[in-house]
Structures are given as C-alpha cells and as structure tokens.
Predict the 3D structure of the following.
Amino acid sequence: MIDVGRICVKTAGREAGKFCVVVDVLKDRFVLVTGPLVVTHVKRRRCNIEHLEPTPDVIKIAKNASDVEIINVYKKQGIFEKLGTKPPSDKDMELAKEKERKRAVAKKGKPKEPEAKPHEKEKAEKAKPEPKKEEKKEEPKPAKPAEKKPADKKKKKEKPKKKEHKEKKPGKKSKKKPEKPAKAKKAKGKKK
C-alpha cells in the first residue's frame, strides 16, 4: 500500500496532520518522506510507516526524486488543489533549488558543471594559450657541514619520584572531622 509516490498524512510528531509524499521505501518498516518543505512544511526525513495514513492519491515520481521534481509533478497533476495548499512562490522555488544543489555537493563532493557541446570544447581548447617554458638556472648552494646527532641519545626528562606517604607537618591540624556523639534515639510511645 505504501510505495514511492504515495501521498500520506503524518499522524505523529511535530508534523502531524500535514501531507507528505513517499520518496523511498527503506528497510525495517521505514520510508523516506518529504512535503516538500516549501509546500507543506514537512522536511525530508525517515518516517515509520505506522506514523503515516496513506491517501488514495499517487503521483508518478522516480525513487529519491528531488523536491523541485516533486513540486513540478504536483503542478502537472493538480495536487495543490487536492491538498488545499498554494504553489510555492518563485523565491521559495529558488530556495528549494539551492537546497538541492547543496545536498548534491554534500553527497558527491563537487557540483556537476553542464557539459559543453563538442564544437564548443574545441574552441575553448584553442583559445587557451599554452604556458611558456622557462629555463631556470639553479645556483649551487654553499655546502654546510652536516651536524651529526646520535639517534640513540635522546634527552629524557626524569620525573621526580612520588613520595610513598605524606609527612605530617608539626602544628597543622588534620582535616578529619571530629566525630559527633551518638544521639540517643527517642522512644516512640505515648506522652505522659
């Protein structure tokens, strides 16, 4: 019943009562859901399937689809009207795209640059000037006499030996608390 593209309502947690869509099915009764955040304020996270109430609506998305892709499918299939929400503004869409870029960078290490067409690559290679080769004359450095340090002899710091017991200084009191006299227990009984 719960599969990729299923629209659900969250029933537990701070996002309870909000709509989300299943992006991926994970092991051990968990799924990956998203609102997207700019639409329903449900961020992409793992969710227990017991905390979801599936609706009859299903959208066609790829596994691990981005929030931008999901928003575009929402627009095409008229899901915003069914959910009772408004489509995100252009500013919100830009924020969603920026988050997708950051997620891609964190996942792969480097953002993908759009590949240039083959004829544009050739033009770019021709436009690059070849680096000039310069010959550097190395001046001989004056030889310094090498100092020989024996590797076996390292300076070792000797730690002072610990005293086995502390010696009491005359005139100083010990820090032991004086013993209090034992209090006699009151006999429980009737007062006379």
